Amino acid sequence: MYRGVVNEAELAALAEALRRAEIIAFDTETTSLTPRDARLCGLSFSVRPGEAWYVPVRSPEPGRHLDEAAVLRVLRPILEDPRRPKCGHNLKYDLLVMRNAGVELRGVAFDSMVASYLIDASRSGHSLDALCLALLKHTNISIGELIGTGKNQRTFDTAPLDRAIEYAAEDADMSLRLRDLMAPQLRAMGLWDLFERVEMPLVEVLAELEWNGITVDPAELDRQAERLNARIEDLRRKIVEASPRTFNPDSPKQLASVLFNKPTDAEPGLGLRPLKRTKTGPSTDAEVLEKLAADPEVTSPVPGLIVEHRQLTKLVGTYLVALKEAIHPSTGRIHASFNQTVAATGRLSSSDPNLQNIPIRTDVGREIRRAFVAAPGCVLIAADYSQIELRLLAHLSRDPALIEAFRNDEDIHTAVAAQIHGVAPERVTREQRNGAKMVNFGIVYGITPFGLARRLGVSNEQASAIIDGYKARFAGITTFLQECVAQAQRFGYVETILKRRRPIADIGAGNPSARALAERMAINSVVQGSAADLIKLAMVDLHARLSEHAGHRRAGGPEIDGVKMLLQIHDELVFEARREVAEEALALVVQRMQQAMSLDVPLKVDAGMSESWFEA
Fold it and tell me: Residue 476: is it exposed, middle or buried by C-beta count within 10 angstroms (0-12/13-18/19+)?
């Protein structure tokens, strides 16, 4: 039975029912999917399967119900009480919406979206509608039925009140039913500790990151865009000058004809040999162009110029322009979304905009970080785990040589090269170190002799010898890699340090290439997933120690006041701190990150602080 709560007496009765409940299923309806811009349309609750309430605060018929202030005055004490556990679906959104409405939602105990992700990270989607259909055999009311779709979609406050009550109450009811179904499953799978200790606290951490955002200087983005656009125009001129005819470098079809047509054709070209074909003709993808640019037999500068032109064009369009558009007009900050239930390895991802993909391998890409700056009176602190996957590989494989190298704080690539080639570390050549470095970083991704040969510019035989030498000297790693594959074959999944699971579907596939890919995935998932476990533990710990919004969980509030966690990018955390506490905050961040997990090798964190992310 679904009911609307539209007067003070009904609201008082609801509040009493919520106070008596063991757990409260909670959901919000709003005017926008962007929490910072969303206005509250109503709140829905359920405490027993099959029963739910919807409390509207905005609708086409405001005279039929209470307003937001009257509703929150009664419900705020319950919503802000950490002793009253709440469950829901995608509660990060509800945390942000309620904070925008001036309410600190506390007691967040169970999120069915997060639970679904832990139970089966390979599921194609973890939406409420998808889970209800798959697990409860129930088809939810479609949002399109209420407010339309596409260009004709309206905001929820225009939905007919009676239909809005049915729709919103159903969401709370289904969230409660999913919780009742999934909680025992998490316990049975041995995932409850990971869920309760890491993933659920992380919901609040990510809400904090999204709320804080990071200040971005639009003038710096404009300066970089202007400089790169000038370089792009110069490249276009050089490309056309070096080509047999005028063409549009942005057109793959025209580029293909310029590269691969013969000089004697009606539309003359450079006569280069195509390296790969697609359904529409010779490929001009990045791999092809980079091979042509590196080929000593190709004398034309066009492939190399095109590679740089594409890189710079992408930097301007995908990053400089898009980042400026993403700056929130009222805060001057970018409030990216951090996604907890997307990457199958357990890693976090980001979107709107995707900050994880800001390029840092090139100087011109790293420059973009200059635009990310601290607020007045503050500095940014950037703290990055050093060689974390290699350290985890040493711990997981229990390989004595690799463990000893990390314990002695040696240059790990030189140490590995010395082991492979049987020479003293001081006699390792640059080429030998580069080879060891490539294998170190590639071993958990299933690096092949062909792949290593291509990266190092050596023969397949030389590359094979390097890999064989590595596996012979570090037998513990070889055994570990085999154990990862064996676990996947036996159970159909692999586990991380904190017992996070990832199903490996094709581990028994008859197709050799599909099976090989699954084996690489099994190995990579254990190491990358354990790295995800580590940084999530550090984030949860630091959030409790630094965030004013976490103070209710610890007597006395945060250890250091005036510090905000802003970003999580790969193995790096970025904070903003008032200048007077920055040194103390940096020391605490490094200490807690290095102590987040106890391993057989020391964890190392590189950290710095400055007014910009580039210099921190």
Answer: middle
State the CATH number of the domain containing residue 120.
Answer: 3.30.420.10
| The residue count for the chain | 616
- Domain boundary (188, 212, 236) is at 212
606, part of any domain: yes
Q: What pLDDT score does 552 carry?
A: 43
Provide the 3-class DSSP secondary structure of residue 605: strand
**Would residue 540 be called left, alpha or beta, if left means φ above 0 and alpha means ψ between -120 and 50 degrees?**
alpha
Q: Are strands 40-48 and 24-30 parallel, antiparallel or unpaired?
A: antiparallel
Residue 73 CB contacts under 8 Å (≥ 6 apart), including other chains: none
Q: Give the burial class of 223: count Cβ atoms within 10 A of its Cβ; 0-12 exposed, 13-18 middle, 19 or more buried.
A: middle
Q: pLDDT digits over 73-89, tens only?
A: 999 999 999 999 999 99
> Does a structural domain hold residue 271?
yes
pTM of the model: 0.92
Domain boundary residue among 212, 241, 263? Answer: 212
In the Cβ-directed half-sphere of 559, how many Cα atoms lie within 13 Å?
14
Query: Among candidates 350, 355, 347, which has minimal Cα distance to 339?
Result: 350
Domain that holds residue 348: 338-388+534-610
- Positive or negative torsion for Cα 524, 525, 526, 527: positive
- The torsion region of residue 599 among left (phi > 0), alpha (psi -120 to 50) and beta comes to beta
| Token pair listed for 179 | 């919780």
Rounded to whole angstroms, the Cα distance separating 588 from 593 reads: 8
Kindly tell me the sign of the dihedral angle through the C-alpha atoms of 127, 128, 129, 134.
Answer: positive
> Over 90: is that where the pLDDT of 438 sits?
no
Q: Rounded distance, CA 515 to CA 340, Å?
A: 28
**% of residues, the chain, pLDDT over 90:** 81
Q: How large a percentage of the chain has pLDDT more than 70? A: 98
What digits encode the pLDDT tens for the residues 504-551? Answer: 999 988 899 899 899 999 999 999 999 999 999 999 999 999 876 544
Joined tokens for residue 281: 């003709």
Identify whether residues 116 and 245 lie together within a single domain: no
Question: Across the beta sheet with 333-334, what order do the strands follow?
Answer: 333-334, 214-216, 372-373
Say if CB 542 and CB 573 are below 8 A apart: yes
